[in-house]
Design goal:
single chain; 180 residues; alpha/beta; Rossmann fold; five-stranded parallel sheet; 5 strands; 51% helix
């Protein structure tokens, strides 16, 4: 896979971006799924471990929406792992608690795009996810453009150095290497 292919916006075969939702409450997963399934390809995980498994198998996730309070692995822990292993994924934290320490940790370690308090309003969460998906698309597009520019610059440097070498011009000086 080329670098350009890996930096394309994360979309499923349907052309829609992929949203990964993580919550240990099946009813919450179902509600979020129903809120977003028409706009996004939605993947659901009942735990942080299951979310990491999905991420390892399906590298096209654009946005993660996770609950904070889950057994075994909190949302903050999950987002911290994803921040280092999957840095291109945009992360959103849902929390019913206002534990400032958890929020600071989530923002600093998990590089959270936004956090949304429970109970959330559908229109509010839709807007946050829309912003996250748009941010992901913009960042992916800019990364692709930068990568293309760097490849073009490297190719230009290689051609320039080849021409200089063929014509006897040092790259440090424009004087010929031979004397007359």
């Amino acid at each position: 896979m080329t670098q350009e292919e890996t930096s394309r916006p994360k979309r499923a075969s349907s052309g829609r971006q992929i949203l990964l939702v993580v919550d240990d409450e099946p009813d919450h997963l179902d509600l979020i799924y129903r809120t977003f399934h028409e706009e996004y390809e939605v993947r659901c995980a009942g735990s942080g471990a299951e979310a990491l498994e999905i991420l390892s198998l399906e590298r096209d996730i654009a946005v993660i929406v996770t609950d904070q309070r889950m057994p075994r692995m909190s949302g903050t822990e999950l987002l911290s792992i994803t921040a280092s292993q999957y840095p291109d994924v945009i992360r959103i934290l849902l929390t019913a608690y206002s534990d400032i320490e958890d929020l600071v940790e989530a923002i600093n370690d998990g590089k959270v795009f936004k956090y949304v308090t429970k109970p959330w309003r559908a229109d509010e969460l839709r807007e946050v996810v829309r912003q996250a998906a748009e941010t992901h698309s913009i960042l992916t597009s800019r990364t692709r453009e930068l990568s293309r520019s760097l490849r073009q610059e490297a190719l230009l440097n290689m051609v320039t150095n080849t021409i200089r070498g063929a014509s006897g011009i040092s790259s440090k000086s424009s004087r010929p290497l031979w004397r007359r």
